[in-house]
C-alpha cells in the first residue's frame, strides 16, 4: 500500500496528470451510492420476501452490483498480459531538430509526460514476474503534437523477420493447446520445435537464455525499439534510428536458481520492486539513446537494417544519449491505467516514420486491431490513460461507450455547413506527412537474401559474454532443452548451436546426454514457400566486421550505485546495537533499503535492552528477495541463529547466488555452519564480496557498500555444489 509519505513524494506535475485528476474518484468521507448516485442504506442484505424467504427480482441495488461484477473482466492481452506501469516525465537533453521535427525532442530541457508499462510476454496476467522471457518496455509520450508510443522490448532483436510468422511463434511458445501447460515458459516441446526450424530465432534465443531473460528489476533493464525507424527533419531529410533505453542503475540479472525460487516466494517481485521504489521517492530513471545512420549509409552494414533479428553493434555506431525518463508516480488504479493503456507502434508524431522492416509493418496493423477486442470497441482512445494531451477533433462518431459529446450537425468533410471545420493541417501547422519514399516494385511474397545470415550476430553475442555469463547460457540451454520430451527436437536445436559456437553446442549436448550431431546439419524443414527453391532460404555465413561488442555483456554495465538495493540484516534477540546502527546508517545514506529479518515478527530486544521492529520473519522472507546480507554481532543473537536452519540457509544461499555478504564480530562463529566457512579460514574472500570482520572498523561498511555496488560476484567458485 502506498504510504501517505510516499504519496506526497510522488510528483503529479504534468498536464496529463491534471487531466487525469478530472477522472480520479475518491470515496473518502462520501456516502456509498448506486451507479445512478442513489445513496445505499443496506449493503449487507438482498431484498427478500421475509428474512428466510426468496430474493426479489425488483432488487435493483443487488442486480446492479452483481451485473457489474459479472462483467468485470476483459480479455487479457494476447501477448504481454502480465505487466506493471507507472507515470513519469521525459526530459530532452538537447535539440534534435537537425534530425527530426518531433516537437518533444526539439528543445533542450523540454518535458513531456509519459506512461510506461513493462511486461513479460508469455505468462498469463496472474503468472510470475521471474519467468525466463523477453520483457516488454512500452512508453507512451503525451507530446504536444499527439501521442507517440515507443513500444519496445528489453532485447534489441526479435524471433522472426516477418509479421506473417507472429501467430505461429506465439502459438508455439504459449502453453500447449491440448492441456494448457506449461505456464509462463518457453521450456516445452512446441516452442523448441518451432525455434529449431526457424534459424533466424537463434540470435534472440541467445539473449533470452542470458541474464537478460531474468532481470533483477524492471528498473535495471535496458529497453530497445528493436526496428530501425526513420526520423524526418523539417526539410524532409531522413535519418535511420535505433532506440535504446539505458537504466541509470545499470543492467542486472539474477541466477536461474534464484529466479525459480523468487517465483515461489514472491511472484510479484518486479511489480513490487517498481511500486516500492516509486512509492519511497527513489524514482527509476533511464536515458534515451539513439544510434543514427544517414540515409545514404543504409547499405553499408554486413546485415540489413530492415532485419529485426539484427542489431547495430555499438562498436560501429555509438549510442547518443538524448534525454532522460523518470518514473515518478504509481497509478491510482491498476485496471484503469495499467490494464487499459493501449500502445501502438503506429502512434507516431510528425518527424517520426516507419522503416520497411516487415515485422514493423505487420505490427502497424495488429496493435489497433487487438485493442478493438481487448477494450471492447473503437472508442478506447477516450479512456483517460489513452487520451492525447494534444487537442483532438475529427469526424469519427459513435460506437460502443462513446463519451465525447460532439457538437453541431457536421460529421463529414468537406463541409460548408461547419465552415469546413475541423481543418486539415498544413505541414507548417504540424500536419503529419508520410516520408515520400520512392517504391517501384513487383507485388511479391518474398524476403530479401540480405536477411539470410542467421548466426553471425548470435555468435557475436555469445563471444561478447564473460566466462561466467557463458556458463549461465549453457546451463540455461541445458534446462530449457532438458524440458523438451522429443529428443529429435533437442538434437536439431543443438545442431543449430554448432553454427553459433562449437564449444557451446558441445557443452549443451553433454548436459543433455548425447554427442553433438555430426556431419552437415540435418535439412531444416523451416518455412519455405511451396513453390520456392529451398536454396534461396539457406543460411548464409556473413563474416561480420565486429566479432565482439562489449555493450552486449551485462558485466560492462554501470556499477557502484546501491540505491534501492535490498539488504537483509539477520538478527535475533540480543543483537548488538553497536553493530547494527552504524551499518544501517551507512547503507541508508547510500539509498539502500534495510530490512530486519528475525525468527519471529514483532520486535526483538537488543543487547542494550532496546526493542527494534522486525520487518520480516525467516518464514515470510528468503535470501532470494535481497541483494546483500549482513549478519551483525551479538552473542545471544548468534547463538539463536546458529540453531535456526532457515538463518543458516539464508547465508548459504546468498553465497551460492554470488551476493555481497558482511559478517561482523561474534557472527563469525556462524561461519562454521556455512559452506564457505572452511574456505574463509585459508582465503581472503573480500575480492569475492564476502566481508568478514572480527572487530568493528569504519572501513567495514565502506567495503560492504562497494561490494553491493558490484551487484554480484559471478566468478565465485564452486557455488553450484552448495545445496540449498
Ligand atoms: Fe507486440 N503485440 N507484436 N512486439 N508488443 C502486443 O498489442 C505484435 C513485437 C510489444 O504494455 C499486442 O496491445 C505483432 C516486437 C510490447 O500494452 C499485439 C508482432 C516488439 C507489447 C502485438 C509483435 C513488441 C506488445 C498484444 C510481430 C518489440 C505490450 C496487446 C509482427 C519491439 C504493450 C497489445 C503493452 C503487445 C502484436 C512483435 C513489443 C497483439 C503482430 C518486435 C512491449 O498487438
From TrEMBL:
SMART domains recorded: Catalase
Single annotated GO MF: catalase activity
EC supergroup of this enzyme: oxidoreductase
Domain Catalase core: 33-421
Keywords noted in UniProt: Heme, Hydrogen peroxide, Iron, Metal-binding, Oxidoreductase, Peroxidase
One Pfam family matching this protein: Catalase-rel
Region (Disordered): 1-26
Site of covalent link 3'-histidyl-3-tyrosine (His-Tyr): 344-367
PROSITE patterns referenced in this protein's UniProt entry, alphabetically: CATALASE_1, CATALASE_2, CATALASE_3
GO cellular component, one term: cytosol
Enzyme Commission number(s): 1.11.1.6
Family matches, as InterPro entries: Catalase, Catalase_AS, Catalase_clade2, Catalase_clade2_helical, Catalase_core, Catalase_haem_BS, Catalase_immune_responsive, Catalase_large_C
Binding site for heme: 77, 117, 166, 363, 367, 374
Superkingdom assignment: Bacteria
GO biological process entries: hydrogen peroxide catabolic process; response to oxidative stress
Cofactor(s), by name: heme
Catalysis performed (reactions): 2 H2O2 = O2 + 2 H2O
Active site: 80, 153
Function field: Decomposes hydrogen peroxide into water and oxygen; serves to protect cells from the toxic effects of hydrogen peroxide.
Similarity comment: Belongs to the catalase family. HPII subfamily.
Protein name: Catalase
